[in-house]
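As a warm-up, study this chain.
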Amino acid sequence: MYKNIDKGKKLVLAEQIAYQTGQVVSKTLVQNDAVSVTLFSFDRGEEISTHAASGDAMVTVLDGVGRFTVGGEVFQLGAGETLVMPKSVPHSVYGVRQFKMILVISY
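Now compare it with the structure written out below.
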């Protein structure tokens, strides 16, 4: 079930979450036993420290530039680029510039 988002309307996902100075902002769209879908915005220099997910995590950058470190390998992604971070592999996320992403975790 979707929440926090209009249904039956054309949407631009990047417009569904705002930047906030000095913060990482998240907006959950779906959360259940099979899948989680969350929008994020990162201010420049903000990060989510190293952690591991209990499912495969796919991120697509919607705006700006983010750096993803996955199992020690570094990836820099810009708008329209996608990365799948494997289940249980430690990863972190850093805002090289302000950026927005959508995260889909499948369990």
